Amino acid sequence: MSRTRGRLNRSVTSTAKKYQILVFTEGKKTEPLYLNHWSRLHRERVIVKVADFHADPFSLVREAASQKKSDERSARKGRGDSFDEYWCSFDIDEHPKIPQAIQMAAENGISLAISNPCVELWFALHFRDVPTYIHRYDVQREVRDLLKCGKALPPAALGRLADNFQAAKGRAVLLDRKHAADGSAPGTNPSSNMWSLIEVIRRSPDPL
Questions:
Q1: If you count Cβ atoms within 10 Å of the first and of the last residue's Cβ in the chain, which end, N or C, has fewer?
Q2: 136, 120 in Cβ contact below 8 A?
Q3: What pLDDT is recorded for position 11?
């Protein structure tokens, strides 16, 4: 796990003038491809680095917190700079220790993009409302049919998702309001706040 530490911190170059975000993702294919696409769309002012570390949510947050602390120590010693923001993106799925992961993130300044039951729910929201509980297998099958692909998102699928982002965000926000109105816990199935990470990428400040 230590292989990422001391290697991902920002170097003191011209690229450091851009807003830089480090994201730890549970998935090895889908999320990195998706986030790298958004990074390319806004590459004039933001750099999104997806860490080469993929694990369950608790381990993911623990690694992100360790990396952040390591970067901040290096920055204090003049050995580069830390990232502007640190994120973890993961599914609820059937993972244990989700509350502990969320608490650890809050205590260490790690932002979270969580999808319940899985990231495919976020993709499905690009095309339709998902008003009630849905099993991950069902939404994964639906998204495979919608995007005509598996875990590896091709350019055509990425383009369709980017085009429908605002619709997906609107549906996700309405789901949060619905859960709040009916007394459900935040993040109840179905829900996703992946849009919040994408908005950071889209609205990152212009280079200094």
A1: C
A2: yes
A3: 46
For residue 31 the two structure tokens come to 């999320």
pLDDT (tens digit per residue) in 63-98: 999 999 999 999 999 888 899 999 999 999 999 999
Task: Dig out the tokens for 35 from the structure.
Answer: 């986030």
CB 97 within 8 A of CB 78: no
Residue 193, amino acid: N
Query: Residue 20 in contact with residue 84, Cβ under 8 Å?
Result: yes
Separation CA 179–CA 177 (nearest Å): 5
Q: What is the pLDDT of residue 51?
A: 98
Inter-CA distances, 31 with 71, 89, 119, 152, 200, Å: 23, 8, 8, 9, 16
> What b/e string do you get for 108-147 counting C-beta neighbours within 10 Å, with b at 16 or more?
eebbbbbbbbbbbbbbbbbbeebeeebebeebbebbeebb
Q: Residue 139: in which H helix or E strand, if any? A: helix 136-147
Confidence of residue 207 (pLDDT cuts 50, 70, 90): confident
**Measured on CA atoms in the order 170, 22, 71, 63, is the torsion positive or negative?**
positive
Helix orientation angle between 136-147 and 155-163, rounded to the nearest 10 degrees: 110
- Least confident interval from 20-29, 75-84, 123-132, 195-204: 75-84
Judging by beta carbons within 10 Å of its beta carbon (0-12, 13-18, 19+), is residue 94 exposed, middle or buried?
exposed
Instruction: Give the pLDDT mean for 14-32.
Output: 89
